[in-house]
Amino acid sequence: MILNTIWEQQYNPMGNIWLSAAVAALPIVIFLISLVVFKLKGYTAGGLSILSAAIVAAVCYKMPVDKIAGAAEQGIVSGLWPVASIVLAAIFLYKLTVKMGFFDVMKQSISSISPDKRIQVLLIAFSFNAFLEGAAGFGAPVAITAAILVGLGFKPLQSAAICLVANIAGGAYGAMGIPVTVPATLTDLDALTLGKNTSLILCLVTVIIAFLIVFMVDGFKGIKETFPAIIVSGGGFAVTQFIFLNFVGPELVNVSSAIVSLLALIVFLRFWQPKQPLTAETKEISKDDKGTLSGKEVVRAWTPFILLTLFVTLLNTGFFKQLIQAANPKTGQTAGALNSLIFNFPYYIDGAVARVAPIVKQPTPIKAVFSFAPFTSTTTAILLAAILTIIIFRVNSRIVISTIRETAVELWGPILTICSVLAFAYISTYSGMSSTLGLAFANTGKVFPLFSPILGWIGVFLTGSVVNSGSLFAGLQSVTASQIGIDPSLLVAANIMGGAIAKMISPQSIAVAAAAVGLVNRDSEIFAKTIKWSVILLVLAGVLNLLITLR
C-alpha cells in the first residue's frame, strides 16, 4: 500500500553536516550509555533508543509521527520473524535433546573420537559451533558448545571464552546467511556479491581462529603438536567457505563448511593422533571408554541434528526454490507450485518515504513489504526436525510442553531486545539519520575503510547480533562508500566482518555463555579473556580492508 503523501528524507537538518551527524548519533549514544554505563537491560536500553530516535526524527528531521510509528512497526515485526523465531526454535530443539538424554550421549561420542582437548575444541568449539550458527545462530551455538566442553571436562571460564572466540568462524553468516541478506536488502545490494567480498578477509580470519583456539588451550606447544589437525580442520572450513561465498551464496556457507571441516578431521584422526594427548583435568578419557557406545546409540542421539541438517539443505535446494519462485512476465517464468503459500503484507510505511539526492539521483520511494515464506525459513527447518524427533522417539507431551514453557520464559528478554533494536534501526534508516552519519563520515575520505569495520564492531558490541549491526549501520556504510567513490558492497562487507569479530565481546553473547557454563554474574571475567583477541583481529581487518579498497 502506498500512502497518498510521500515524505522525502532530509540529511542535513541542522545546516551543518557535522552538527546534524551529532544529533543523528544521539540515539546511539543513549543506547551505549544505557547499556554500558547504567547497565540497563537490553530491552530497556533499546526502548530508550526508540524513544530518543523518534524524538530526533520528529523534532529535527520533521518526519511525520505516523511514519515514525510505521518504521518502528517494521522493525518489531522483522525482529519477531525471522530472527526471534529462529532463536526460539533452536533453543527448544537443544533443550529437547537434553531432556531426552541425548545430550550426554553426544558428549560421550565426541570423547570417543579423540581424548585430546585441543582436537575437541576443533570439533566442537570450531566446527560444530559454526554448524549450529548456520542452522540457528543468535546465541544458541555458543551456549550449546560451551556446555558440551564443560561436560567434556574443560573449565567453565575457558569453555566460554573459547566458544565465543570460535564463533567468529560462522558468526558473519549466522543462520542461513541472514547477517548478509538483511544488510543486502537494506542497501539494495546483491547478497552473493556482498558475501563474496566478505570472503576476501574472513576466510583468512577463519584459519587464524582455528590456530587461536588451540593456542588458548595449550599455547604454542599445542599448535606445534596438533598442527596437521588444525590445517585439516581450519583449511577445510576456509576452502569450503570461500567456494560457497564466491559461487553459491551465503545461505548454506556455515552448514556446508562445518560439515566438511568435521568430516575431514574425523577421517584424518583415523590415521593420525597427537603423540602426546592433552586430556581434560577433570575427566580423563581412557581407551576402554571408546567401546561403551554402539553405533546405534550414537546415531540415535545425533538424530535431531541430522534431521535439522537434512531439512535445512532440502529447503535450500534448487528444486524447492523453483517451487516457490514468483512469476516473471518479462522472462516468461511461471510461478512455482508453492508460490501461492508465500504471503506478502505491505507495511503501513510502504512507499511512504523517499530517498533523495545525494543518496539517489531521483526521489525513490522505499518499499516495505513483510514476506512470510515458510518453505524457505530456517525456523521451519528447525521445527520440522523437532516435530519429527518428537514423533520418532514418542516424546511424552508433558516433556514437550515443559520444554516450550522453559524456552519462552528464558528467551522473552532477548527477544524484546532484538525487537527494540530493530525498531530503533528502522527509525534511523527511514528518517535519514543513518544517511546523515554516512555523509559526515564521507568527509574522512579514502582512509575511511580503515575504520569501517569498527562500525560493525560497535554495532554488535551493543546489540549482540551481526544482523542487528547490519540493520543499524549498513546504510551508513553504503552511503559513505558512494560518497568517497568505493564499491558500497566492500564497506557493507567490512561492517559484517567487524560485527563478527565483536561477537566475542558482546554483553549479550557473554551473558549467554556465562549462563550456559554456570558463571552467572561473572561476565567481566569472560570479557577480559576475549577483548584482546577481538581488538587484534579488528585492527587486522581494518588494515586489510584499507589495502583492498586502495588496490
Automatic annotation (TrEMBL):
GO terms for cellular component: plasma membrane. Keywords: Cell membrane, Membrane, Transmembrane, Transmembrane helix, Transport. It holds the Pfam family Lactate_perm. One of its GO terms (molecular function) is lactate transmembrane transporter activity. Signal peptide: none annotated. Belongs to the lactate permease family. Uptake of L-lactate across the membrane. Can also transport D-lactate and glycolate. This is L-lactate permease.
